[in-house]
Specification:
Elements lengths: L33 E5 L3 E4 H14 L5 E4 L5 E5 L12 E9 L4 E6 L3 H12 L6 E5 L6
Antiparallel strand pairs: 1-6, 1-7, 2-5, 3-6, 4-5
C-alpha cells in the first residue's frame, strides 16, 4: 500500500478545514484518455486507493496503462479500544489523502473507451467520495 518512506513528523493535526473549496491543482487530465474525477471533498485511505487500483487492473485484465494521481501523505492516529482519556495522542493508524471537488484521482489509456469507462466506473464504487468518469476532451469542473 501507499505511504511515505520518511516523514518530518510522526503525528499530524487533523485540519479538516483544508478540504474546503475546489481543487486548483490536479484538476485536469494530464497523462491518460479517461479519468475519475472527485465531485465531493473527503479523505481517501491508502487501502481504498489500492482497492480501486486492483479493481481497475482486474477489469481490463491488466491491459492498458493506469496512473494514480493522488498519494496518501497524511497520517491519522488511533488509540486502542477501551483506553482511558489522557496519556497523549494515539499511534499512527492509517495514511490518507484529502481530496477536494474537481481532483483527478485515476487516469487510464491504452484500451477501448468502453472497457476503460467500465473499469473506472467499477473503481468509483470503492471510493468514499462521489466521483464521475470523464474523457480528456471535457473541460474541468
Amino acid at each position: 500500500m501507499l505511504q511515505p518512506k520518511k516523514t518530518l513528523f510522526r503525528r499530524l493535526h487533523r485540519l479538516r478545514s483544508q478540504s474546503k473549496g475546489v481543487s486548483t491543482r490536479g484538476n485536469q487530465i494530464s497523462f491518460g484518455e479517461m479519468a475519475i474525477k472527485a465531485l465531493t471533498a473527503g479523505e481517501i485511505t491508502a487501502r481504498q486507493i489500492e482497492s480501486a487500483r486492483r479493481t481497475i487492473a482486474r477489469a481490463v485484465k491488466r491491459g492498458g496503462k493506469t496512473w494514480i494521481r493522488v498519494f496518501p501523505d497524511k497520517v491519522l492516529t488511533a488509540k486502542g479500544a477501551e483506553v482511558p482519556m489522557g496519556s497523549g495522542k494515539g499511534a499512527p493508524d492509517k495514511w490518507v489523502v484529502q481530496v477536494k471537488p474537481g481532483r483527478i484521482l485515476f487516469e487510464m489509456s491504452g484500451e477501448s473507451e468502453e472497457l476503460m469507462r467500465n473499469a473506472l466506473k467499477l473503481a468509483t464504487y470503492k471510493l468514499p467520495v462521489k466521483c464521475k468518469v470523464i474523457n480528456s476532451d471535457i473541460a474541468p469542473l
